[in-house]
Design a protein that fits this description.
It is a single chain. By secondary structure, this protein is mainly alpha-helical. Helices cover about 100% and strands about 0% of the residues. The longest helix is centred in the middle third of the chain and has 117 residues, at about 1-119. The chain is rod-shaped.
Length: about 120
């Protein structure tokens, strides 16, 4: 009976040893896969980080450009308003000169009639 229990214990210890070996190999392969995945993820992170950094620089550049364009637009808007007021002044002046021209034309016509009737 002692031999039988000793044999059973030996077989169980052998099974346990083999199980530990398989588990060790399994966990080692998991660890290796995890390390590879971590390396790939880290590489992707660095790539995305570099891309993100360049996009942030480009965004800052575009924001500065937008501010410059907004300032230029404000200046042009002011010039446009100034030009509109000058155009309005000039149109009023030209209307006044046009009416004065018509008056002078009528005076010339009247003078020509007087001169023609005097001769």
């Amino acid at each position: 009976m002692k031999k039988k229990t000793h044999k059973i214990v030996s077989i169980m210890l052998g099974v346990i040893a083999v199980s530990f070996i398989f588990l060790s190999v399994y966990f080692y392969s998991l660890h290796k896969d995890l390390s590879e995945s971590y390396a790939k993820l880290n590489k992707e992170y660095k790539t995305v980080f570099v891309d993100n950094e360049s996009l942030m620089k480009e965004n800052a550049s575009l924001e500065r450009k937008a501010i410059e364009l907004h300032d230029e637009s404000s200046k042009l808007s002011g010039l446009l308003e100034q030009s509109a007021s000058e155009i309005e002044k000039l149109s009023i002046e030209s209307a006044a000169l046009e009416s004065e021209k018509k008056k002078l034309e009528t005076e010339v016509a009247n003078l020509e009639k007087k001169l023609g009737s005097a001769l």
